[in-house]
Design brief:
The structure is a homodimer of 348-residue chains. By secondary structure, chain A is an alpha/beta fold. Chain A has a 4-stranded parallel beta sheet, with helices on one face. A 4-stranded parallel beta sheet of chain A has the order 7-6-8-9, sandwiched between helices. The structure holds a DNA duplex (30 and 30 nucleotides).
DNA sequence: ACACGCGATGTTGACGTCAACATCGAACGC
DNA sequence: GCGTTCGATGTTGACGTCAACATCGCGTGT
């Protein structure tokens, strides 16, 4: 009864040969049935399928990958899933890849303490994926000392232009312009900015676009308050802003920091939007229920994910490279955190 | 110069044989170097490593998996990454797996429209992972019609007891008790509850534990307001609660719904925590910056992730099964959204 | 009746790796 | 000096799949 041989040895499942034997056909015919080829007699097919079912046969993807030279798998390099945007993009990437018949291999970049162990096992050091989507900022990639194998198809989701890879990202500049113009159009004299970390290209794009918009409108450019995407950093920045009675409009580089800003304003008793208007960036699910509901810039993460996968698969299958960067448009979502300034500015 | 053969054929990288030829050794010696075996002469090792570098050799994980009968890969079944808890757990799972030398294979369950396509490609239908961690609620699993292959090691992260698999999860009952008791200890007469969806076991545990705690303390059990984890559903429930002057304490089954409740209370002009105290569940990064900062139950997702991976790997490698469910303790985090009721109840 | 074509099925070998076994030479003990 | 041992290295074959090629039998046209 027992088929145990050595105690540690892995028990393998039935192979094509087993199915073939049971069905009384050759392995090749089983292969044809498994791959849904048309040139198999109906009766034979039924017999083979019955045998598969009886044995619980499942194709071995390793053998398939070895034979075909393809893994049907996409690696996704992520840092931490804590970031809202990364998570949403990953979700979309996973869905798009699955639909295209690819599997997602998560390649987490661990923090410094765990790194030594990491590298030894990193799947990037071996052939295991057909291509890679990079979901972390260029800066983090450098810091992690990750070396991408030559010839491996890569798509970068980041606004960085420094890498020689195809790029897909939300149109950061357009979004930041939308946010800034919305506030100026409401009549605010100028707009203050809580930025993302200086190492982030997306943050840089948003900051520069905010600044450019102000300059083009002839507005004074107030000093930037540096944040790091976290609500806490937004809160710190918000405390400074709340203490400054000149501030009537704030553009935070993401919704999380906007939340921190809101809290700081509330604590100081400054009313939003009556005293100060606030705009975020991302449109998290929560933002519609902040107090007050946050006006923000909606990023279409679904499109970003899908387009990245499409570009990568094109590269894998056809060897196409270096299209122009893809910039997915964003949209302004107006809620209750923005309003005209209480005391309208003097007309010029 | 050109090595192109057929236009579509996949270009394969150098194999051990290529390295062996260049280094003037046998393939087996290359294998020994690649696997860091000790019984290789130092000079030989150097020569081989030089050859590897020169050719850009990367081991082929498919061949390795085929040979060894192991994939060194863990499948993680997820529904959508939108949920905070799932994301945090996935993050922890990925880190733990990487450290243990396993790769994460994301297996997204797509929505109904995309399902037909999905199943055809689902990696569960073939051998590609050594084990699976289920990060979706039992209900969703059923609905998706997912059939887990017999004999595949599985760990479930859910409070459901209906499956015959090892289970790891936060101690939902303990957390809900903590939340409820905190409010009662502050002097509230009773605690209202905004629950998660009825299909969720976690939601069910929290609701039952809240009810039990109230009963044990001799408090009246108010009707449950059904939510579905989303901030919107919390908002809807919050509007009903805000309209009811009897309500002085609310326990929402997660932080997102608590956010919705807070918004509804603000809109109605009910002051938190003076008029109404609110407790959440999860401790998202944002919760500390809600207005007011939210008292909530901290879930240790890192432990949940790590313990799941450990249990699964033990099952994969040693064939161990069916330990008792692992319940990771939660912690109460007190912030500003809870306080004693404004008008203390009459002493009994 | 015979050559031919075509669809169904079988046979062979190679993908890259590594365990098991084989071999070879040097150091060592007596 | 000779058998023994041990460490370094080489050879062989199998893991499961599938493309390419081979074969077989049946129907068609003349």
């Amino acid at each position: 009864m027992s088929a145990e041989e050595s105690p540690v040895r892995r028990r393998r499942g039935p192979s094509m040969a087993d199915v073939a034997r049971l069905a009384g056909v050759s392995g090749q015919t089983v292969s044809r049935v498994a791959n849904d080829r048309h040139n198999v007699d109906a009766a034979t097919r039924d017999r083979v399928q019955a045998a598969m079912r009886e044995l619980g046969y499942r194709p071995n993807s390793a053998a398939r990958a070895l034979r075909n030279g393809q893994f049907r798998s996409i690696g996704v390099i992520v840092f931490e899933l804590s970031s809202f945007g990364t998570t949403r993009t990953l979700d979309a990437v996973a869905a798009a890849a699955t639909i295209s018949g690819y599997t997602i291999n998560l390649l987490p970049v661990l923090d410094v303490n765990q790194r030594a162990v990491t590298n030894a096992f990193s799947r990037l050091g071996e052939q295991a994926v057909d291509g890679v989507i990079i979901l972390i900022e260029a800066h983090t990639l450098d810091e992690a000392g990750i070396q991408l194998p030559e010839g491996l198809p890569v798509v970068v989701v980041d606004s960085s232009a420094r890498y020689d890879y195809p790029i897909v990202d939300s149109n950061q500049a357009q979004g930041a312009r939308l946010a800034t113009e919305h506030l100026l159009d409401l009549g605010h004299e100028t707009v203050w900015h809580v930025s993302g970390p200086p190492t982030s290209f997306a943050a840089d794009r948003r900051r520069r676009s905010w600044e450019l918009t102000l300059t083009q409108r002839g507005c004074e450019v107030p000093p930037v308050l540096d944040g790091d995407w976290t609500p806490s950093s937004g809160y710190e920045a918000g405390r400074k802003l709340a203490a400054n009675p000149d501030v009537t409009a704030v553009f935070a580089a993401n919704d999380q920091m906007a939340l921190g800003v809101l809290r700081a304003l509330h604590e100081r008793g400054r009313v939003v939007p009556d005293d100060v208007s606030v705009v975020g960036f991302d449109d998290m699910e929560e933002s519609a229920h902040f107090w007050p509901p946050l006006t923000t810039i909606l990023q279409n993460f679904t499109d970003v994910g899908r387009l990245s996968v499409d570009a990568l698969i094109r590269e894998i299958q056809a060897g196409e490279h270096h299209h122009d960067p893809v910039a997915v448009p964003t949209k302004l979502v107006v809620r209750s955190s923005t309003a005209p300034p209480r005391r309208p500015q003097l007309a010029g």
